[in-house]
Amino acid sequence: MLNRSRQDPPLRIAVAGFVHESNSFAPSPADMAAFEQGGGYLPLSRGSQILQRARDVNLPIAGAITHARAQGWDLVPLVWAGAVPSAPVTSECFEAIVEEIVCGLRDAGRLDGVFLDLHGAMVADGHPDGEGEILDRVRRAVGQDVPVVAALDLHGNISPRMIDMANRVMGFRTYPHVDMAATGQRAAVELDRLLAGGQNFKAFRQLDFLIPIAWQSTMEEPAASLYRLVAATDDDDVCLSFFMGFPAADFVDCRPSVVAYADSQSKADAWAERMARAVRDAEPSFCGQSWLASDGVAEAQRLALTADRPVILADTQDNPGAGGDSDTTGMLRALVEARATDAAIGLLTDPEAAAAAHAAGEGATIQISLGGRSGIADDEPFTATFLVEKLSDGHCHATGPYYGGAHLQLGPCACLRIGGVRVAVASEKAQMADREMFRFLGIEPEAQAILVVKSSVHFRADFAPIAHRILTCVAPGPMPVSPASLPFRHLRPGLRLEPCGPAFDPERKADAKIGLRLASTERTPCSTD
């Protein structure tokens, strides 16, 4: 930590953020409107708006601001932009936001350091390594002598360019990401250490296989043990991050990686190699059980007969946190066809259906075609008559550990009922990772026999405490349980497309029906190909 006297001027630190996780195969790109709305993040914010809106929320920028205030930094807030994961960022949007960050840095005058809140898995039109491009431009704007530190998501696909351009990149240690603010604070502490003359020896290792996000939860093995090893480095004065990667970004550095910083090159290399070896050893354990939609609902109904808590089904392949539009209807169809009772599903994003419900009013019945408009193979709108049970303007205060108190603006929303199934419908998409996202539409999660959440892992932070059992279910969607079924073109040849699985071959022909691989009621085995 810096040892500064009262006579020293306060450290002048620029802060900015540009956060997006990009699925190269998702249906909808991220344009400026997506960042202005923000999804589950803050809306597009500038200057003092950042300091006001990031107060007491679970985001890295919030943790950095907390540290800055405690240390008396003179903050120079530039711009903060985040959008819910989707197809890549449009070139127009990317250029506009990056240019605003760069111009802000150039116009800021004297700067002692730069803190960036980024994701690590951004793909933009024309720039497949989004963060590499951002960090490169930031470095050119501030020069070589100003430390640049970036807080990143543990799903980051880290490139050599990112490592070269930043003095530190640091990743979350939890999935669900309940430590986003804590990571921002740790990164700000590292910036202080660099400014105090700390060394910057670094080591970088990339792994040879993709990890499906459904099996990345740090609440379960093998990730739980791997991240305990990451935390153990704190006692050895080492800054270590393990990035599990986001396995739907089609560019050459899509893969897990390890980054270590230490006070000597030998120590950085030793820890990076130890961590990489532990990840390689854990490769066969990154697998799990998935259920076809109809089988998952049938199992949930069986379990619910004797359960005193909800059975929770994760609609993992339409997870808006991984690029889905949160509008596929496979799980809804399975619930209705099975005549499920005391069941709820959400959030299903359909602004037209929400508008129709608001026009009709509470207590009305409406016949609509719900969802299914993203062009996903084997998915289509669900046409039926629904009862409008409750309406909302879409403001939801998400108080669970993932959103951490964020105020979500979801546009006109409605609870629609068909038989024993309630559907939480929103106009804006956001991952169902908080129980309040059911409650604000009159659905008490604890009172349901079956809950279907459009999420892969983040929901566990708030829903696992009330779950009798959690089942990962497979219905059509743009984020397959196994990335091996994605039609990649630009990965590094030889990269295994799933744990212990087939290697990427640029000449291979991928399964045309994205999102249907590994749909079984058996534990997914690691192949020996």
Overall description:
The N and C termini lie far apart (50 Å). This protein has 529 residues and is an alpha/beta fold. The protein folds into two domains: 11-198, Glycerate kinase, domain 1 (Rossmann fold), CATH 3.40.50; 291-474, no CATH class. It has a nine-stranded mixed sheet with strand order 12-22-13-21-14-20-19-16-15, covered by helices on one side. A six-stranded mixed sheet has the order 3-4-1-6-7-8, sandwiched between helices. Strands 9-11-10 form a three-stranded antiparallel sheet. Helix content is 27%, strand content 22%. Helix 3 (60-71) crosses helix 7 and helix 4 (91-107) runs parallel beside helix 5. Strand 17 and strand 18 form a beta hairpin. The model is unreliable at 511-529 (pLDDT under 50). The protein contains 14 helices and 22 strands. The protein is globular, with a radius of gyration of 23 Å.
Strand order in the largest sheet: 12-22-13-21-14-20-19-16-15
- Number of helical regions: 14
Strand content: 15-25%
CATH superfamily of the largest domain: Glycerate kinase, domain 1
Instruction: Give the helix/strand class.
Output: alpha/beta
Compute the CA-based radius of gyration: 23 Å
| The CATH topology of the largest domain | Rossmann fold
Stretches where pLDDT is under 50 for at least 5 consecutive residues are 511-529
Mean pLDDT: 93
- Percent helix, as a range, is 25-40%
Bulk shape: globular
